[in-house]
Write a structure and sequence with these properties.
D-amino Acid Aminotransferase, Chain A, domain 2, binds N-(5'-phosphopyridoxyl)-D-alanine, D-amino Acid Aminotransferase, Chain A, domain 1, 2 domains, alpha+beta, 8 helices, globular
Length: 278
């Protein structure tokens, strides 16, 4: 694979980042995952807007113009002949002597991008649906910033794996925040319910697209927090993200959701999302 490191394309074996990089020492960095379908970038502008916002919230600026990010994404897709998968981009506060204070102004930010091939459309998880467990949400209070500080989510996903399940939904004060790397939804009483935007969750780019498409299809939406009990009693549940698009949830904490099979609302949204993304 060819990867992008600070302005250069290099083979992954030759790519180097400093041991003093603040991404490595402090998780002082943010990232984006843009999916690629048929060699085309999905929702690129949305991901760039969120990257700018994440950086701004941490007192960093865009290290390159958006047009340069676009060129880098396209170059990586072409150089690696990527048809389906994603482009990962990480921006950190750069390398400096280890200090809790930010490095002096003018310290260059680090930018790393790489591709990852993956089947996104034809995925067994989407056909079968996924089984999830619930876990306490022990992450920090600014989950709207897409930082590389992912250990809490990683531990939740490991707990799911140890329990023989696919993923976890994180819970705070009895309400579901989101999945380990996706936004969470239930369908109940004919309406699609997903948590409203705040500092408690990541503002998913796929979420925004799916809500827009659901509105256009005249489906009923409610943006509000829902409880674990509500989720367990729901007709359907599903998650959205750049890597999973729309994926049905068929079991929560060992209890079947609805009939225990993927539901019609999730299936329809997945179909219209993919048609729109192509
Ligand atoms: N995760 N919530 C969390 C905590 C996430 O990490 C993600 C994305 C989402 C969905 O956001 P979007 O629709 O913009 O992908 C929600 C990416 C895919 C990842 O970490 O791999």
């Amino acid at each position: 694979r060819m990867v992008f490191v600070n302005g250069e394309y290099v083979p992954e074996e030759a790519a180097r980042v400093s041991v003093f990089d603040r991404g490595f020492l402090f998780a002082d960095g943010v990232y984006e995952v843009v999916s690629v379908l048929g060699g085309k970038l999905v929702d690129f502008a949305g991901h760039m807007a969120r990257l700018r916002r994440s950086l701004g919230a941490l007192d960093m600026e865009m290290p390159m113009a958006e047009a340069e990010f676009l060129a880098t994404h396209r170059d990586l897709v072409a150089r690696n002949a990527l048809d389906e998968g994603m482009v990962y981009t990480q921006v950190t506060r750069g390398a400096a002597d280890r200090d809790f204070l930010f490095p002096p102004e003018g310290t260059p930010l680090s930018v790393v991008s790489f591709t990852q091939a993956a089947a996104l459309v034809d995925k067994p998880a989407a056909r079968r649906g996924i089984r999830i467990i619930t876990q306490p949400d022990i992450r920090w209070g600014r989950r709207d910033i897409k930082t590389v500080q992912l250990l809490a989510a990683s531990m939740c996903k490991m707990a799911a794996k140890k329990a023989g399940k696919d993923d976890a939904w994180m819970v705070e004060d009895g309400f579901v925040t989101e999945g380990t790397s996706n936004n969470a939804y239930v369908v109940a009483g004919g309406s699609i319910i997903t948590r409203d935007l705040s500092h408690s969750i990541l503002h998913g780019i796929t979420r925004a697209a799916v809500l827009r498409l659901a509105r256009e299809a005249r489906m009923t939406l409610e943006e509000r927090a829902f409880t674990v009990e509500e989720a367990k009693a729901a007709d359907e549940a599903f998650v959205t993200s750049a890597s999973s698009f729309v994926t049905p949830v068929i079991e929560i904490d060992g209890l079947p959701v609805g009939s225990g099979a993927p539901g019609p609302v999730a299936a329809r949204l997945r179909e219209i999302y993919i048609a729109d993304a192509r």
